[in-house]
């Protein structure tokens, strides 16, 4: 073989090796972006490694009186600021040492149709505006769930499904939303053993997990009314704070007393006056606000 032929042979061998290396490198690059090896799927299925994002129609919410930040200064924004400041102080300030799971807050009412879901959603939206806080909204009204409906979201698995099925992870029922810092756990399918499920060790473990995993998280439970519903009292034992929503000129003092007398004495308890024509200072130091219509 001549010198020229030997040189051509060496060049051909070199080109073949480079081509093989190039193909191999491209293959690795392609494998690195496949779903099975992506960081998201390889990571443990914890509640904050979720890929499901629920798009919320904020214009629709705004039109229905919900607190959507448009850069304008509105009374409803200021009123919820006053409510959340006390709750955040209880959750993360000096008072937190005196409360069990102070960053878990239940929102309920004495009776149906007093505006508890309206308050729960607006409170979540207000806290989501904080620069250093995240909020998780849990639809714990498993008898009459309404968070998905109010936010315009499709029905999906949720809290009851998680409690029923040991193989479920929190990440299976926890959804990111298109609103910054706001996540949602729906109620899931109604079940005849809802009281027992909410009183289970699995529910207690979930509450503890939600309370302690992230130090900047506030969890709001939209709960059933207090009077005549045992599920709410079960949930009250898992949280550190409670807001009871009352409707101006409708809810009686007797109803408020009946609703709150069975609550854990260690709860930080507040009253919110809903559908108020004007603001009123109530005995717990919160202010009323106007025109909420959702349950």
In brief, what are we looking at here?
By secondary structure, this protein is of the alpha/beta class. It has helices at residues 3-32, 39-42, 58-63, 75-92, 116-128, 147-151, 159-164, 194-198, 201-212, 230-236, 253-260, and strands spanning 53-54, 104-109, 134-139, 175-177, 182-185, 217-222, 241-247, 268-274.
Folded structure, characterized:
The protein is α/β, with parallel strands linked by helices and 295 residues long. The protein folds into two domains: 3-39; 45-274, 3-Layer(aba) Sandwich (Rossmann fold), CATH 3.40.50.300. The chain is 39% helix and 14% strand. It is built from eleven helices and eight strands. Strands 1-4-5-3-6-2-7-8 form an eight-stranded mixed sheet, with helices on both faces. The N and C termini lie far apart (92 Å).
Layout: helices, strands, pairs:
Blueprint lengths: L2 H30 L6 H4 L10 E2 L3 H6 L11 H18 L11 E6 L6 H13 L5 E6 L7 H5 L7 H6 L10 E3 L4 E4 L8 H5 L2 H12 L4 E6 L7 H7 L4 E7 L5 H8 L7 E7 L21
Parallel strand pairs: 1-4, 2-6, 2-7, 3-5, 3-6, 7-8
Antiparallel strand pairs: 4-5
Helix pairs in contact: 4-5
Keywords, separated by commas or semicolons:
single chain; 295 residues; alpha/beta; Rossmann fold; eight-stranded mixed sheet; 11 helices; 39% helix; 14% strand; disordered C terminus
């Amino acid at each position: 073989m001549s010198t020229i032929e030997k040189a051509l042979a060496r060049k051909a061998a070199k080109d073949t090796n480079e081509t093989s290396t190039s193909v191999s490198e491209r293959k690795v690059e392609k494998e690195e972006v496949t779903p099975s090896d992506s960081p998201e799927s390889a990571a443990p299925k914890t509640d904050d490694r979720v890929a499901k994002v629920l798009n919320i129609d904020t214009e629709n919410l705004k039109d229905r009186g919900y607190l959507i930040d448009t850069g304008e200064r509105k009374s409803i924004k200021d009123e919820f600021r006053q409510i959340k400041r006390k709750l955040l102080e209880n959750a993360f300030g000096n008072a937190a040492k005196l409360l069990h799971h102070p960053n878990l807050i239940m929102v309920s009412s004495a009776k149906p149709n007093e505006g508890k879901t309206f308050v729960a959603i607006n409170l979540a939206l207000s806290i989501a505006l904080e620069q250093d806080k995240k909020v998780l909204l849990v639809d714990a009204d498993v008898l009459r769930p309404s968070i998905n409906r109010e936010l315009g979201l499709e029905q999906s698995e949720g809290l009851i499904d998680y409690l029923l099925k040991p193989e479920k992870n929190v990440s299976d029922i926890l959804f990111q939303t298109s609103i910054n810092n706001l996540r949602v756990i729906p109620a899931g399918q109604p079940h005849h053993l809802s009281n027992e499920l909410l009183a289970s060790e699995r529910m207690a473990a979930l509450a503890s997990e939600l309370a302690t995993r992230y130090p900047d998280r506030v969890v709001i439970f939209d709960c059933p009314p207090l009077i005549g519903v045992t599920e709410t009292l079960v949930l009250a034992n898992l949280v550190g704070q409670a807001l009871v929503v009352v409707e101006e000129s409708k809810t009686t003092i007797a109803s408020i007393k009946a609703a709150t007398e069975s609550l854990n004495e260690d709860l930080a308890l507040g009253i919110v006056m809903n559908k108020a024509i004007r603001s009123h200072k109530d005995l717990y130091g919160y202010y009323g606000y106007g025109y909420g219509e959702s349950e």
